[in-house]
Design brief:
Layout: E1 2-9, H1 12-43, H2 49-54, H3 56-62, H4 71-93, E2 112-115, E3 122-125, E4 128-131, E5 135-140, E6 148-157, E7 160-168, E8 180-185, E9 191-193, E10 198-199, H5 204-221, H6 227-261, E11 264-268, H7 272-276, H8 281-304, E12 307-311, E13 335-337, E14 344-346, H9 347-363, H10 368-372
Parallel strand pairs: 8-11, 11-12
Antiparallel strand pairs: 1-5, 1-7, 2-6, 3-4, 4-5, 6-7, 8-9, 9-10, 13-14
Helix pairs in contact: 1-4, 5-6, 5-8, 6-8
Bound molecules: zinc ion (ZN).
Length: 380
């Protein structure tokens, strides 16, 4: 599945209809959530998705807003709630701490609705998106759809309306290159490869950090509930959107370059959730960038017939990539200098080679480095 995003240019009336649809969906979501909650709390009765769908026709007769929304869109709202409950129960069962019960959605906390079946309520006609009950909307089509469209979601963002069209595509495997690589994430560089190359931190990280900080300050200075604060919040949301887009662009370009060159890509297994709890803004931006890069990399690799493995990161920076000896060093020491075999390398380069070696073991091939050095493969 590949999702294509198109910006929409609705007329004023269409924009109002889109907003009204979101409101109706949100109310339906909240009512359905209340029904499930009440059913359980009062009678220990669990309400199913199918049962809630069955009540839709009767609700439509009583509520004049519901018939103004395509019925599959309404069903999809109930489906979403059902998924929220599934996730909730799965996480409770798994014994996760702090699992939140599905929440009621306030204004501004419900930003998308979905036509789950392409051609049924949503279709493209002459370059315009025709949505049932809303109209034929102008689309900024910057690239054509590739594959068979399956679903269409309409999303409200800080700078307008968007359509996400998910298409089923066929994978096109790239020719094998016989090369593998290890990738080490760092603080000085975005990443270092086992080839010794470094991927620089995108320059926009610093600028983004400055802009976000400024926008955040502007919001906090203004009076709660005021129009000026609402405006400042929109600007903050736009700044976030801008960062997200730059990050996505960088992730796609970088991942594509790696996938083209290497059959096997080894990265460190990292606890992204733990990382994102870090509140330092600079670190947060960097971590989010790495998290998204990892996601894009695995998606691209999968569709190109490449393999990405996440290896155990323990000791990758301490072990010598040439002889396997442990060479302890503090985080501030940027150079790996092995007293046992005389290996001299940049700290991150050394770590990247270790990651590659672990990856090669996981790919099921003889560790290339050990073969090159004509030594027995060692476990790090
Ligand atoms: Zn050594």
């Amino acid at each position: 599945m590949r999702t294509y995003t198109y910006k929409l240019r609705p007329t004023k009336a269409q924009a109002a209809a889109l907003t009204a649809t979101l409101d109706t969906c949100r109310h339906l979501y909240n009512r359905a959530l209340a029904e499930r909650k009440g059913g359980w709390e009062q009678e220990q009765r669990s309400v199913t998705f199918a049962a809630q769908c069955a009540t839709l026709p009767a609700q439509k007769r009583e509520n004049p807003y519901l018939p103004a929304v395509h019925s599959q869109v309404l069903q999809n709202v109930l489906r979403r709630l059902d998924r929220a409950f599934d996730n909730f129960f799965r996480r409770v069962k798994a014994g996760e701490a702090k699992v939140g019960y599905p929440r009621f959605r306030g204004r501004g906390w419900y930003d998308s609705f979905c036509y789950p079946q392409w051609g049924n309520g949503a279709k493209l006609v002459d370059g315009r998106l025709v949505l049932s009950k809303i109209g034929s909307i102008r689309v900024c089509a910057d690239r054509p759809l590739d594959g068979t469209p399956k679903t269409c979601s309409i999303v409200r963002k800080a700078d307008g309306w968007y359509a996400h069209i998910a298409c089923e595509t066929t994978d096109t495997p790239l020719p094998a290159t016989g090369e593998s690589v290890g990738v080490d994430v760092g603080l000085t560089h975005f990443a270092t490869l086992s080839t010794g190359e470094t991927l620089a931190n995108p320059r926009h990280y610093r600028a983004a950090e400055r802009r976000l900080r400024k926008a955040q300050r502007r919001v906090s200075r203004r009076v709660k509930g005021s129009k000026r604060r609402a405006k400042a919040r929109t600007l903050l949301a736009k700044a976030h959107l801008h960062v997200q887009r730059q990050r996505r662009d960088f992730a796609h370009k970088t991942a594509l370059a790696l996938v083209r060159r290497f059959d096997g890509i080894a990265v460190e297994a990292l606890n992204i959730r733990g990382m994102l709890r870090n509140h330092a803004l600079a670190k947060h931006i960097q971590d989010a960038g790495w998290g998204q890069f990892r996601q894009v990399l695995s998606d691209k690799a999968a569709s190109a017939g490449r393999v990405v493995v996440a290896v155990n990161p323990a000791g990758t920076s301490q072990a010598c990539s040439a002889c396997g000896s442990r060479v302890p060093k503090k985080l501030s020491v940027r150079w790996h200098s092995c007293p046992y075999c005389g290996c001299e390398l940049d700290r991150d380069h050394n770590a990247a080679i270790n990651i590659k070696t672990r990856g090669d073991t996981a790919f099921g091939e003889p560790p290339a480095l050990a073969a090159a050095l004509n030594r027995e493969p060692h476990t790090l």
